[in-house]
Known about the structure:
Low-confidence stretches of chain B: 12-36
Oligomer: heterodimer
Helix content of chain B: 40-55%
Order of helices and strands of chain A: HHHHHHEEHHHHHHH
Shape of chain A: globular
Distance between the termini of chain A: 53 Å
Number of helices of chain A: 13
Amino acid sequence: MIHECVDQYACLAANINFNLEGLRIGFWQLTIDGLSWGAIYALVAVGYTLVFGVLRLINFAHSEIFMLGMFGAYFALDVIMGFTPSGNAYNKGIALTVLYLGIAMLFAMLVSGSAAVGLEFVAYRPLRRRNARSLTFLITAIGASFVMQEFVHFILPHIIKGYGGSNAQQPIILVQPKTQFHIFSATVSNVTIVIIVAALILALLTDYAINRTKFGRGIRAVAQDSTTATLMGVSRERIIMTTFLIGGLLAGAAALLYTLKVPQGIIYSGGFLLGIKAFSAAVLGGIGNLRGALLGGLLLGIMENYGQAVFGTQWRDVVAFVLLVLVLLFRPTGILGESLGKARA
Amino acid sequence: MRGRVARNVFALGSAGLVVLGIAGCNQSKPEEGGTAPTDLKIVEQVQIDEQGKEIKADQSAAAADPAGDGKATCPPVSIAMAGALNGPDAALGINIKNGVQMAIDKHNAANQGCQVQLKPFDTEGDPQKATAIAPQIVDDQYTIGLVGPAFSGETKATGTVFDQAGLVATTASATNPTLSENGWKTFFRGLANDAVQGPAVANYMKNTLGYKKICVIDDSTDYGLGLASAVRTTLGPVADSGCNISVKKGDKDFSAAVTQVKGASPDAVFFGGYYAEAAPLVQQLKDGGVTATFVSADGTKDPQFVSQAGEASKDAILSCPCGPATGTFADEYKKKFNTDAGTYSAEGYDLGTILVKGIDSGAITRPALLDFVKNYDGQGVARKYQWTPTGELTTNLIWIFKVQ
């Protein structure tokens, strides 16, 4: 296999299109597909934004929490529920499928949630004890990200046979994408419905938990002013742990939804790009702001899907990041502004 | 608050466990009500030439046997092998190394008086690392032949070193066409190059299979785009301009491309790229209702493609300059390494065989072995080997494989 061009000029010609017609024709389809991607980004983005709000820390290892969630969901389907990986879709009927997916999602959330809390415990808590500088946290986050990736790449195969390693897991597909109904000219598949509905429920629950419950108030209090919050009797360490837990749980849920969309995506490096996108979504909406993360995720998903229709599929990521830069040029704190504590959001 | 959180977590956790317990009792058999796992395989079909015409393999000549007559004698000499043995590209390097290893082991077992040693060198497929390793290979006076380097980039970077040392360098997998244009006297390519594969598969689709409308998709890599461009050029108007699509390596969601292909309703979709993207692409195409034949090349010809895409990969056509591992070679390989012979294993075995046959014939110095390879003409497991003065094969054929 070769890694060079047959025709040098062919390789130099980066083909960028400008196809507004494509956007017009596919508008509703692109919106629906973009929404389902955006929903996944949004769930992962919450993990970045909450941790940033509370700790002023960009938890770059969050993408690996997501990746572990994918393996968790896969493990649940493979070992606990006994599905044989084959690359072909199973057909179990709606009720059973939803039940299986629900269990897989719970398990993925369990794995991601405990991994997030574990990460906090092993990597960040000791640093906080020693009053390390924020740069140290950042480097630790990047390091932890590598550790988790390489763990799955090299060590996991020795622990559980057939897991991890250089290749993606052989997919277990529970839901074969099938068109359910049409909205305007767009086809809506069962996968899209599951993703959007599940993400919506989780987003509402999270919003409720942060804004309406007692421990949500605690999180907001610590984000606003951790010293005063501590004086008022809020346990900072406990709040931090809860924050990581919520972020991890949502990342786990997102991981299962992602594997519905991309069954071949369960690989050690599978969280990286998605993590960066979700982080961008959090920044786009205003990092530290819960609703900002949700809005940013949806917006990023839709806009990059429009972008790839106009400029060509290979420009999808470029569109996403250019959009981020443009928004930050005009609104440096993101669309909804910063801060988990101050804003009512 | 402490009690509250703990209680909630406990409640959630136990609820989860109960659900898991129920699921555990209901251990479902995947077959019932679902699709049974299939055992699809990538199977060789036919060899084609650059015009896409099917060429019948020459069955008359038997493949050269590294064991020889068992009476060979030689002083201690060694053959080096260079390629990626670790890292993400290691699978191909290991396939080649195992092939060479098998040839040498068979030779050594049969010829007690002539023990050839294999010295593997790990370049990780990286031209820079290969540049550092090449002098080590050349400086070893016992090494009189080389199988490698495996990839085009590293071959390009080190060709001059081997040429100056007069060390015969036979590559089992470097397919960049320009490699034979450097004037190296020691370069021999054990398979067809990429300038052959693109036009061959394009002509095969157009002329032999008779497709009238083909969507060509590439993955924007040097390899994928280069190959797809060659295919587009050869196809001419048959390559539909309405579905000339570039995706990106690493992408897993091809919904936009699927929509575009569906609108064009082609006879076939050609994908220039690797299996990691080909698998989700072919599945999403099938899920999206595209019935066109999926055609791809050596980057996709990997068992992973089938295991990732499942039933969706059925009937996909894959071209490869590499030969299939068949018959006794495949059986012996599987027995020895406990895994199926992979891409380029047959080439590694054939090239290893040619080198040990040279040694058996008394060519125990670098110039003598170089001379032997230059004048070699014989059948191997994968194909017939005879080289032009620039180190290309005299007949360049592409194998067509099909998932079935």
